[in-house]
Amino acid sequence: MTFLERGSTFQLSILMNSGRRHLKKITIPTKNGVSASQVSLPDGPWKTYEDFLSERFPVFTKEEWSERMAEGEVLDSTGKPVLPCNSYRGNQKLYYYRYLPNEWKNPFQETVLYQDEWLVVADKPHFLPVTPSGKYVRETLLVRLKQKLGIDSLTPVHRIDRETAGLVLFSTKPEGRNLYQRLFRENLVSKHYEAIAPYRDDLSFPLRYKSRLVQGDSFMRMQTVSGKPNAETEIRLLQQLGEWGHYRLKPVTGRKHQLRVQMCSLGIPILNDRIYPDHFPEAVTQEMQTEEYRHPLQLVAKSISFIDPVTGETRFFESRHSLDPKSVPVKTD
């Protein structure tokens, strides 16, 4: 029999005596909006699942894994809870729920601008990641929306940075996910951002800026190198505000950190950018986080339009977030 994963729904194909295949849907449910993670179990010397999990994920001790099993937070491939001290069996998968007991509460709230049976459009605040990663699990847009809307199959069809506010689209059904993701893969979406950055009188706007972006010296950073351009953005100056400018940015391509890197390359880095040109340390205390909250990156994913691949309708959405050109905060170290 074969085992196919589709989001958090797993289909078990069983070959029946009649020679026909019947699909039985096995759903691994979410807990408080958090989908189960999975791990494949190899053959090995481990006596119990706790032995394996504590070695594979040493952030938790064997005793802590036993407690999580007792609370029903570790499941086998059929969705049944794995009990403490069950004998280890390889060549299968386990599912477990991630949680961070000391995850900081994010004070900023998202807004659902639109919802139908196929699509959800959310307006994301600054500082809220789109999906769980690293030290963020519950305090992410995806988990919050799953809790709020009760849609376990909800999946983002594109991403924006944690520091950026604005529009994010979600697919509600697995069968529609690729249709919406295809819009972004094939550049069938028109979107624009707004930003506050320094004003330079030696730059002539509007301009169409092309460059080549590659992975930088760390996972967090991209860099500009010579070679055939792979990133392109249209940049317009909406308003001059003394030494600052209010810009409209329309990305033609969708590279990681594209707008932030290209604006920095032009000598006009986006205000309060903590990665470009200088990479500031991530907040490790709540006091540091509170200070960072006072100086949000002045970048908003402002609007998006496309032809809906399901309904054929023309869609246009606009973020309610706006920049405040009259109040320019000063970034501190």
UniProtKB/TrEMBL annotation:
<protein>
    <recommendedName>
        <fullName>Pseudouridine synthase RsuA/RluA-like domain-containing protein</fullName>
    </recommendedName>
</protein>
<dbReference type="GO" id="GO:0000455">
    <property type="term" value="P:enzyme-directed rRNA pseudouridine synthesis"/>
</dbReference>
<dbReference type="InterPro" id="IPR050188">
    <property type="entry name" value="RluA_PseudoU_synthase"/>
</dbReference>
<dbReference type="InterPro" id="IPR006145">
    <property type="entry name" value="PsdUridine_synth_RsuA/RluA"/>
</dbReference>
<feature type="domain" description="Pseudouridine synthase RsuA/RluA-like">
    <location>
        <begin position="119"/>
        <end position="263"/>
    </location>
</feature>
<dbReference type="InterPro" id="IPR006224">
    <property type="entry name" value="PsdUridine_synth_RluA-like_CS"/>
</dbReference>
<dbReference type="GO" id="GO:0009982">
    <property type="term" value="F:pseudouridine synthase activity"/>
</dbReference>
<dbReference type="Pfam" id="PF00849">
    <property type="entry name" value="PseudoU_synth_2"/>
</dbReference>
<dbReference type="InterPro" id="IPR020103">
    <property type="entry name" value="PsdUridine_synth_cat_dom_sf"/>
</dbReference>
<dbReference type="GO" id="GO:0140098">
    <property type="term" value="F:catalytic activity, acting on RNA"/>
</dbReference>
<dbReference type="GO" id="GO:0003723">
    <property type="term" value="F:RNA binding"/>
</dbReference>
